[in-house]
C-alpha cells in the first residue's frame, strides 16, 4: 500500500489526480481489483493508496498505462515522502 505525504497546498491536486487514476485503473485494467484513495484522519497531508492487483505482472502493467504516467507526471514533484507496503491478499470482500 503506497503512502504519500504531501504539503496541504498540494493535497487537493494529489486527491484529484489519484481519484482519476483510481477510477481508470479499476475500469481499464483487468488485473486491478481495487484502487482506493484514503486521506488520513489524523494527518490530512497523508494519503494512502489501497491497491489490489491480480499479481506482480498486473502491477507492472499498471505502471505502463497512460493514466498512470499522466498522474505521476503531475504528482511526483508534489510528493514529500513515499513508502510502500507489499502484502498478500488473504480475503477480499466478494461484493467488490
Task: Briefly say what this structure is.
Helices cover 40% and strands 25% of the residues.
Which key features would you list for this structure?
alpha+beta, Alpha-Beta Plaits, single chain, 96 residues, 3 helices
Explain this structure.
The chain is of the alpha+beta class and 96 residues long. The protein has a single domain (2-84), classed as Alpha-Beta Plaits, CATH 3.30.70. Helices cover 40% and strands 25% of the residues. The protein has three helices and four strands. A four-stranded antiparallel sheet has the order 2-3-1-4. The two termini are 18 Å apart.
Q: Could you state the order of secondary-structure elements as H and E?
A: EHEEHHE
The main sheet orders its strands as 2-3-1-4
Q: State the total count of DSSP E strands.
A: 4
Oligomer state of the chains in this structure: single chain
Question: Into which percentage range does the β-strand content fall?
Answer: 25-35%
List the helices and strands and how they pair.
Layout lengths: L1 E4 L2 H21 L3 E8 L6 E8 L2 H7 L3 H10 L5 E4 L12
Antiparallel strand pairs: 1-3, 1-4, 2-3
